[in-house]
């Protein structure tokens, strides 16, 4: 790898070794400079030596000049000690500095997980064993319907990394502004959970641990689909009672799907289940709910699907339906959302189909 003295524009003109010596903290590398990666970099830099890696040179230079991410989080200033680079050699030199605890956090979307796995695999000969990597995206791989951990198992060709999933009710803008937030870190490794908690937990950002990786992933992905349903209901002006019913019955569908894949019931009543669902299904900041509202207002589905801000729930709805059908699961709300999004079903007709279902014991 490159000599550490070359870590130049990434370090805001400060020498990495001096930073480490002065603070003696965990070295946290954030891969991806979207809104969530940037927000986590801002949060991490309050406690740790932190480097934000961006693949885009122009964006990197802009962040260095303005000390903020004007594309994704305009107006939120960076800590003076937050390092920024678009050079992966420099970024990994930083995170594996001697006598420091390394931690890599990925801020890439689901579509970037496979490529990030390949990137980390290419550098595996240069790094020590047991580097903790935390993944923060939510959803399914479109072509395969794989969850995040399944993509990692398939594409990360190195045993040097341990893995965790960070999820929960959180908007990037609020994390960046240091507003109170609680998240769950899920991993098979209790050591990784402890490292994540030590690095990120503070009086504004609370981190809880879990060993249920599947449950945390499923909760984070499926709540987006239920949130679209809640948005459709709100757009149709069906009232607060209808939204409450959709949240409650939607949580049951999320739990049913997750348990069938091997997760545990309790996970879905925690932060990454009920907590994330309530936030996304009720907040005006939710892209998924807002897409549902547009559908309820009668906006053309094709226009919504072709939008550059298409929400995660749209991307993973078909994947969830396909896996559910393979497992012979009945998920009426998710089926209804898919029929509206992809089969030109009128939203009121889909609602009528849900209401006509036979009554049963709760």
Automatic annotation (TrEMBL):
Domain of life: Bacteria
Enzyme class at the top of the EC tree: oxidoreductase
Domain Glycerol-3-phosphate dehydrogenase NAD-dependent C-terminal: 212-351
Residues binding NADPH: 35-36, 55, 138, 172, 287, 312
Pathway annotation from the record: Membrane lipid metabolism; glycerophospholipid metabolism
Classification via InterPro entries: 6-PGluconate_DH-like_C_sf, 6PGD_dom2, G3P_DH_NAD-dep, G3P_DH_NAD-dep_C, G3P_DH_NAD-dep_N, NAD(P)-bd_dom_sf
EC number in record: 1.1.1.94
Binding, NAD(+): 32-37, 172, 287
Keywords: Cytoplasm, Lipid biosynthesis, Lipid metabolism, NAD, NADP, Nucleotide-binding, Oxidoreductase, Phospholipid biosynthesis, Phospholipid metabolism
Domain Glycerol-3-phosphate dehydrogenase NAD-dependent N-terminal positions: 28-191
Positions that bind sn-glycerol 3-phosphate: 138, 168, 170, 223, 276, 286-288
Any GO MF annotation of the entry: NAD binding
Transmembrane region(s): none
Catalytic activities: sn-glycerol 3-phosphate + NADP(+) = dihydroxyacetone phosphate + NADPH + H(+); sn-glycerol 3-phosphate + NAD(+) = dihydroxyacetone phosphate + NADH + H(+)
Family of the protein in this entry: Belongs to the NAD-dependent glycerol-3-phosphate dehydrogenase family.
Cross-referenced HAMAP family: NAD_Glyc3P_dehydrog
Name of the protein this chain belongs to: Glycerol-3-phosphate dehydrogenase [NAD(P)+]
Taxonomic lineage from the root: Bacteria, Pseudomonadati, Pseudomonadota, Betaproteobacteria, Candidatus Kinetoplastidibacterium
